């Protein structure tokens, strides 16, 4: 049988190389600031962060799969659990919880109590519309797309806007079947 | 958090069992059927141009996969033959063997397919394929200048891959094993005396060279 | 009681100043802080006077006035913290401790990516944290 899917990312987290959390936080902060300076529009920055996250996600998925020994997930529920318990732990060092499932099992929330990206951060009044952690939603979207799941990822709660946790809503739009990629006319 | 990719790939690479000089060629495909990498080590006969060859290989895998899923006796929902499978559906094969070659196959959930064609007597290569997948992650995916979905042009990856598949690092283990079987211990000790490098951790190349000589002596 | 706390940049530009009195003497306090900067400069430029405290961030009592005592702290990046208190009988250790906590609050505030180095600290969290530290510290222990 296939090897058991790890239920928590602790073991993997212990093995991956780590980088100082403050360096990480400050680097990300510097990126966001620079984007704000360059693009001027908060909306544009949100978009750009999401795009950056997406580009990270489509690469990160391979590392995740290679290191975690996760095989195919049976359904979206399992996928969400694996992201929350293994994925977040492995790359961010925190664990998310999954809740707020809708009845069809296609929409859920990943809730982060703790988020290393936002240490020190306080949104100034001029960028209230900014989703500071929008890169995360991009990463999740990109990674899921690589395993054939088209999703829509939005922030529902954001601690920087005064909420009590970070809540990321992941909505499964469709599962893309594996098509034969070549045209027949050749 | 991994930012600065380590040089260490995974705990210890599995010995490329018997693929040593027996590996013929290797393909890496992505989900869209793009051949990311084609390496060939020992392929005497070429009948098609490379593009057709890649397509044929991908097509073979694709059809074989849907056939294996169709024939699965344990799963109820298998869909119709030829109808595209959803992720998570179906089953897959690891390898097949003909009288002239063996094809080992691995597919990651992200759609990366790694195919290794070897001598038919090669044993289970699943661990080796997994290791190659790890190499791919470290040398290709993590390279920020690599655009996902394009053919791989990384000299470093190719070299590492070649080394691994040819088993340069590991060759001496097998050779020593052979020695131990074929000669009494006292004689081997004498031989090894002359080659203290054998036990130095960085002396792989030297060691394999010495082993080759020893090998020759024994068979002479 | 601490009546005023100030952060001054390395070019003597004010980064943050906050007074904690009911009375309307903010201007006077600002003046005191301003004066103290000269003392800091003097201390730094004449290390002989300060003797063994050469590598010390805590500058100690800068100068006493009839009503206040003024303490200083200089970070390695030449940012000065000035503390004005009405308590006249203060132990150095307590002040040191206060500055240490204040320093870490300052560090977190400047680590905010939206803070521009060299500009005034506008963070509400920082203000809150400073108020908390000030409230929690009482110097009249020996009293």
TrEMBL record, chain A:
Pfam families: TRAPP. Keywords: Endoplasmic reticulum, ER-Golgi transport, Golgi apparatus, Transport. Gene3D superfamilies: Trafficking protein particle complex subunit 3. GO terms for biological process: endoplasmic reticulum to Golgi vesicle-mediated transport; intra-Golgi vesicle-mediated transport. It comes from the Eukaryota. CDD domains: TRAPPC3_bet3. GO terms for cellular component: cis-Golgi network membrane; cytosol; endoplasmic reticulum; TRAPP complex. It is found in: Endoplasmic reticulum; Golgi apparatus, cis-Golgi network. Homodimer. May play a role in vesicular transport from endoplasmic reticulum to Golgi. Belongs to the TRAPP small subunits family. BET3 subfamily. This is Trafficking protein particle complex subunit. It comes from Helianthus annuus.
TrEMBL record, chain B:
One of its GO terms (biological process) is endoplasmic reticulum to Golgi vesicle-mediated transport. It is found in: Endoplasmic reticulum; Golgi apparatus, cis-Golgi network. Keywords: Endoplasmic reticulum, ER-Golgi transport, Golgi apparatus, Transport. It comes from the Eukaryota. Pfam families: Sybindin. The keyword Endoplasmic reticulum applies. SUPFAM superfamilies: SNARE-like. The keyword Ubl conjugation does not apply. This is Trafficking protein particle complex subunit. The lineage of its organism: Eukaryota, Viridiplantae, Streptophyta, Embryophyta, Tracheophyta.
TrEMBL record, chain C:
GO terms for cellular component: cytoplasm; endoplasmic reticulum; Golgi apparatus; nucleus; TRAPP complex. Keywords: Endoplasmic reticulum, ER-Golgi transport, Golgi apparatus, Transport. The keyword Protein biosynthesis does not apply. One of its GO terms (biological process) is endoplasmic reticulum to Golgi vesicle-mediated transport. Its main location: endoplasmic reticulum. It is found in: Endoplasmic reticulum; Golgi apparatus, cis-Golgi network; Golgi apparatus. SUPFAM superfamilies: SNARE-like. Pfam families: Sedlin_N. It comes from the Eukaryota. InterPro entries: Longin-like_dom_sf, Sedlin, TRAPPC, TRAPPC2L. CDD domains: TRAPPC2L (cd14854). Signal peptide: none annotated. Belongs to the TRAPP small subunits family. Sedlin subfamily. Part of the multisubunit transport protein particle (TRAPP) complex. This is Trafficking protein particle complex subunit. It comes from Helianthus annuus (Common sunflower).
């Amino acid at each position: 049988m296939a090897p058991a899917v790890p239920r928590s990312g602790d073991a993997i987290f212990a093995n991956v190389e780590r980088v100082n959390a403050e360096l990480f936080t400050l680097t990300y902060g510097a990126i966001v600031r620079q984007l704000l300076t360059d693009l001027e529009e908060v909306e544009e920055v949100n978009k750009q962060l999401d795009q950056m996250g997406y580009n990270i996600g489509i690469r990160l998925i391979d590392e995740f799969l290679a290191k975690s020994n996760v095989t195919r997930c049976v359904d979206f529920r399992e996928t969400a659990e694996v992201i929350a318990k293994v994925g977040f732990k492995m790359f961010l060092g925190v664990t998310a919880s999954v809740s707020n499932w809708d009845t069809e099992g296609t929409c859920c929330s990943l809730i982060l109590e703790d988020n290393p990206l936002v240490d020190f951060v306080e949104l100034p009044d001029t960028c209230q519309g900014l989703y500071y952690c929008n890169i995360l939603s991009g990463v999740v979207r990109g990674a899921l797309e690589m395993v054939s799941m088209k999703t829509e990822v939005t922030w529902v709660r954001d601690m920087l806007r005064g909420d009590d946790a970070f809540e990321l809503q992941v909505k499964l739009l469709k599962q893309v079947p594996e098509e034969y990629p070549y045209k027949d006319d050749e | 958090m991994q930012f600065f990719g380590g040089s260490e790939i995974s705990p210890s690479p599995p010995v490329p069992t018997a693929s040593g000089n027996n590996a013929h060629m290797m393909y890496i495909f992505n989900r869209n059927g793009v051949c990311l990498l084609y390496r060939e080590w020992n392929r005497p006969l070429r009948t098609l141009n490379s593009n057709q060859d890649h397509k044929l290989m991908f097509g073979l895998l694709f059809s074989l996969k849907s056939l294996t899923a169709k024939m699965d006796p344990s799963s109820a929902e298998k869909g119709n033959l030829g109808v595209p499978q959803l992720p998570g559906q179906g089953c897959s094969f690891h390898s097949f063997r003909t009288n002239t070659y063996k094809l080992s196959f691995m597919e990651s959930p992200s759609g990366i397919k790694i195919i290794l064609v070897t001598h038919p007597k090669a044993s289970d290569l699943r661990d080796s394929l997994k290791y190659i997948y790890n190499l791919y992650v470290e040398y290709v995916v993590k390279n920020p200048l690599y655009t996902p979905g394009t053919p791989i042009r990384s000299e470093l990856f190719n070299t590492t891959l070649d080394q691994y598949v040819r088993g340069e690092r590991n060759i001496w283990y097998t050779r020593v094993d052979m020695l131990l079987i074929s000669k009494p211990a006292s004689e081997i000790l004498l031989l090894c005396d002359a080659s203290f490098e054998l036990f130095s951790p960085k002396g792989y190349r030297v060691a394999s060279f010495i082993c080759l000589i020893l090998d020759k002596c024994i068979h002479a | 009681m601490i009546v005023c706390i100030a952060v001054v940049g390395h070019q003597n530009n004010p980064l943050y100043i906050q007074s904690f009195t009911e009375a309307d003497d903010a201007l006077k306090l600002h003046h005191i802080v301003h004066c103290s900067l000269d003392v800091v400069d003097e201390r730094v430029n004449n290390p002989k006077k300060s003797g063994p405290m050469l590598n010390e961030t805590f500058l100690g009592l800068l100068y006493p006035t009839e009503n206040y005592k003024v303490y200083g702290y200089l970070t390695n990046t030449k940012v000065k913290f000035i503390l004005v208190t009405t308590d006249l009988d203060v132990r150095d250790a307590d002040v040191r401790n206060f500055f240490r906590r204040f320093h870490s609050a300052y560090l977190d505030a400047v680590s905010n990516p939206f803070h521009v180095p060299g500009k005034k600290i506008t963070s509400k969290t920082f203000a809150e944290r400073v108020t908390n530290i000030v409230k929690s510290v009482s110097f009249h222990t020996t009293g």
